[in-house]
Write the C-alpha cells for this entry.
Amino acid sequence: MLDKLKQGLTRNVVFLGVVSGLTDISSEMLYPLMPLFITSVLGAPMSALGFIEGSAEATASLLKAAGGALSDKSGKRKPFVVAGYGLSSLSKPLMAAAFSWPMVLCARIIDRIGKGIRTSARDALVASSTEKPYWGKAFGFHRAMDTTGAAIGPFAALLLLNLGIGYRPIFLMAFFPALLGVLILMWLVKEKAPPQPSAAASAGKKPGFFESLRAMPPQYKRFLLFYGIFAIGNSSDAFLLLRAKNLGFGASRVILAYIAYNVVYALCAGPAGWLSDRIGRRKTMAFGFCVFAAVYAGFAFAGHAWLVWPLFAAYGFYGAFNEGVASATVADFSGEANRATAMGIFQATTGLLAFCASLAAGFLWDAISPSAPFIVGSTCAALAAVLMIFTREPAKAQTAIKI
C-alpha cells in the first residue's frame, strides 16, 4: 500500500515540493498582510493595489515565457530554478524597507522576476522527474506542498501580529524560510538529463515565441483559449481578502479565512491530481471552474460576514482542482525538448490576462461597487467550464488511466 502511494513521487518531486512549501511560507507571511499594509499603512487607493498586483503578475508572466524558452534552448532546468528562488528570497527585506506604494511595487516585481525565471523550468523538471502516468499525482503533490506552506505562512504572520510585532519586522522574518528553500534546492535537487534537441534546433534554427506557439498541437491551443477565457476574470486573491474586510472582517479574521482556504487546497490538491490521472484533466478542471464561478458569485452577493468562511473554504477546492492539473495538462501536450517553452507560453498568456483582470478589478471596485469584479470573474469561469465540458477532447489528448 505504501509503495503504491509513493509511486511517481521521486526524490526530485519530493524535494521540489519541500522547496516550494518553504518559499510559500515566506511569501504567504507577506501576502495576506500586503493589501492591508498598502491601503491602511501606506494609504494607497484600491486602484494602486490593482496596479501593483497586475504589474507584478504581468512581469512574472512575460518572464515565464522567456525563462521556459531559454531553459529548453540551454537544455538545463536547475540553474533557472535556483536563480528564480534566490531572487524571490531577496525581495522580502526590500518589502520591509518600503515607505511608499511604488517601493512595494519594486519589491513585488523583483519577487515576480524570480517566479518568472523559475516556474517553467521547475514544472518541466517535475515532469521529467517522474513517469507520465503519474504527472497529475506529481503536480498535485507539488501543489499540496506549496499550499501547505501557504497555510503555515499566514498562521505564522497572524501569531507574530498578535504578539505585537509590526508589518515590517514580519516582512523581514519571511526571508529565512525562503533562504532555507534555496539551500535545499542547491544541495538536494538533481538536474535531469538534458532534453534532446530537435533536428531544427541541432541545425542552429531556434524558433521564436510565435513559431513555438504555432508548432504546438491543436489541443494545446484549444486548452489555452478556454483557460484564457477563465483568466480574464481571475483577478488577484488580494481582492478576496479586501472583500472579506469590506464585509466586516478584521485583520486577524481575514488571515484566518485565508488559512482555511489554503488548508482545504493543500488537503485536496494531491487527490485532485490523482483523480485527473484517472478520469482525465478536462473533467477535473471543469469542476474547478464551476467551483470558482460559485465562489465568486457568493462573494459578489454576500450580505453577511459569516459567509466569508464557507466561501474561502470552497475556494480551496477550485485551487486544488485547477492549478496543478493545468500544469499536468500542458505537460500532456508537449515533449521533453519543448516542455518548458509550452509551460512558459501558457503561463505568460494566462498571467497577462490575469494582469488585465486585476487592473480592471481595481477600477470596477472603485467606480461601480465591490461586487462588480466578482460578477465578472464568476461569468468568465462559468463560460470556461461550459466550453471545457461540451468540447470533445481529442482521443490523443485523453490522459485517464485504468485503475
